[in-house]
Each structure stands twice: as C-alpha cells, then as structure tokens.
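Handoff note, outgoing to incoming analyst
You'll be picking up this chain. Sequence as last confirmed:
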Amino acid sequence: MTSETGLDRIDYGILRSLQNNARLSNKELAAHVGLAPSSCLSRVRRLRETGVLRGFHADIDPAALGVGLQAIMLVRLSQHRRKSFRSFHDYLTALPEVVAFHHVAGVNDFIVHVAVRDSDHLRDLAIDSFTTRPEVAHHETSLIFETIRGQGMPNYNSST
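Most recent structure output, in case you need it:
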C-alpha cells in the first residue's frame, strides 16, 4: 500500500533506518527492510532522485573545529517586504558563523543558529553582522547550553 506521497512501508523503513544510521551499507539497509540489496539500492536511488532523501550528514564535535559557543539569534526585520526577506536570507547564507536559520511567523522573522569561538566573537558578530544591517529592526541573542537531537522526521503518512 502506498501513501499519497507515493511511498510505501518499505520506503518508510529505509528512511527510518537511514535517519537512525546514515552509514548503513546497502547490504545492511536491505536486511533491515527485508529486500534484496539490488532492490534496496534501486529504492534509495529513487528516493534521492525524487528529493525525498536530501542528503547524508556527519555529526561533528563543535569543539574540534574551534567552536566554543553557540547561540540562537532572534531577528525582527524593519520592513516586511519580499526584497528585505530575500536580502537578509542571502546575507545569512553567506555568513560562516551561521549553522542554520529558519524564516518563521510570529513576533520575529528569523531564528538563526550561530557557532562562534567565544563570547567576544559572538558580541562582534551581533554588532557587526546584525545591528549594521538595514533590514534588521531588532535582534535578541540566547546562548545554547546543550543540544539534543530528536529521532528524525516523524512519519504521518504511514501506520507503521
């Protein structure tokens, strides 16, 4: 049985297994979902080609890269025009300290996750990279003390 997304229980099993361990070999993945390795490889290729499976990522210790501090910056734009959003979006994409960002609804317009060397670097980033931007009306910074990752995306299209 396939869902409205065109995925069946085997596809969901592949996705669930890869969310838990993206380093599974094709042979191991095939065993997890009960397929022949060639069929499993074909399905993974299809999931990648259709954009359902968007990539594989390494979880890296920030300290190994010289990151001593991470923070969330809440940003409110001064004007709610498409040009302002696009300009700020493109700016964030180019900042090396930005780990991820979300364009959101509510009081703030962007939630920005940044990684920096130390508190001086964070201060300089806030002053030099956010307060000087013409699009930014207000920003707030909260330090991240701990990050716990969830189990991946929930599956609302399958009963399994």
